[in-house]
Amino acid sequence: MKKALYGLPEEVRFCTRCVISNQRPGSVVEFKNTGKEPKPTIKFDDEGVCSACRFAEIKENKIDWDLRKKELLELCDWHRSKDGSYDCVVPGSGGKDSVFTAHVLREQYGMNPLTVTWAPHIYTEVGWRNMQNWMRCGFDNMLFTPDAKVHRLLTRLAFENLCHPFQPFIIGQRLIGPRIAALYGIPLIFYGENQAEYGNDIEANDKPTMDPQFFMEEPDLDSLVLGGVLARELVDRYGISINDLNPYLPVQPDRLKKINAEMHYLSYYIKWDPQENYYYASEHCDFEANTMRTEGSYSKYSSIDDRIDPLHYFTTLAKFGIGRATYDAAQEIRNGKITREEGVSLVHRYDTEFPSKDFREITEYMGITEDRFWEVIDAARSPHLWEKVDGDWKLRHQVQNLSI
After folding, report:
1. Residue at 250 is within a domain
2. Residue 167 sits in which domain range?
3. What pLDDT score does 29 carry?
4. pLDDT digits (tens, 9 = 90+) for 293-317
5. 132 within domain boundaries
6. Does residue 261 lie within any of the structural domains?
7. Which branch of life, at top level (predicted)?
């Protein structure tokens, strides 16, 4: 067997229901983990079915969604403001899911959400239009744009050290909701779906709330890691001040405990279906799909607000052999939008496509050359997933139709 990097299983298996493989990395607490060994958490049972597909069965057959909606109503009744003040925080980009979440809470449950956004690295045209359409739909929004110099540096370091240019954004996006909630004394924060929807431990979906460890921790520059670099080194070597790092640091526990903050997943209460969320956002808030499919996939409506998105998925292809078409197809197979055979065909056609459209702009943003980009990408390829054939990198394993 070829050596597997990142703690991945050396034997590559594909789900017999969808197209995901056992190489899918699990979600980690980004500011606690260097990203060098993101252990896989997706599980396969004796029938070769992944945990995400098994949870899709549970959603369809075993959850009483009417009862869950009653629980949501009770939660909202407890927190709903009577004086017009904000009663919940909804973090989001203005994408289909955050638009859906905010609109449902306001129109169906009578809440008055404050929406908060961590700005993308570089807005796409359609992403900015959707952000504006979200606000025109009647929502107040706080758009937080981090120090460009610091964010560009952290993005470059995350790419070079972890082959994960999205890490600083993920950290900021995750922390901005609780940070604003603590600032304004709003104890209820709503996120969209739990990542357990996509393959993390199924049992995590039994809880409506997010583990507070994702947010609450005393900042410690000698153990905190950003972009694969200790925070202390960012201060001492790169000249970043502690104030510069503040947006990326965990929220101090006493600030969230003081307001009895709760972070809830809307997907616990309402059956989550990203494509249906798109239709809802389009109907109610003029959400626009892109005019062309996303590079590396066949979709036009998911994660279209940041120019760096396609490059991020190209890095997951390099590290885990899983590109954007695999993620999209697996999700839509589980939700009954396409068949597995269609998904396999789409993965073969688009998964390894290189995102060339915004490549120059993104490498300039990170301050790296094209040669340096490929040096990082090729070093990140795990030998058990990739081989060179006639000078070109090829995947050793791709999902197949079961009839083949």
Report:
1. yes
2. 61-269
3. 40
4. 999 999 999 999 999 999 999 999 9
5. yes
6. yes
7. Bacteria
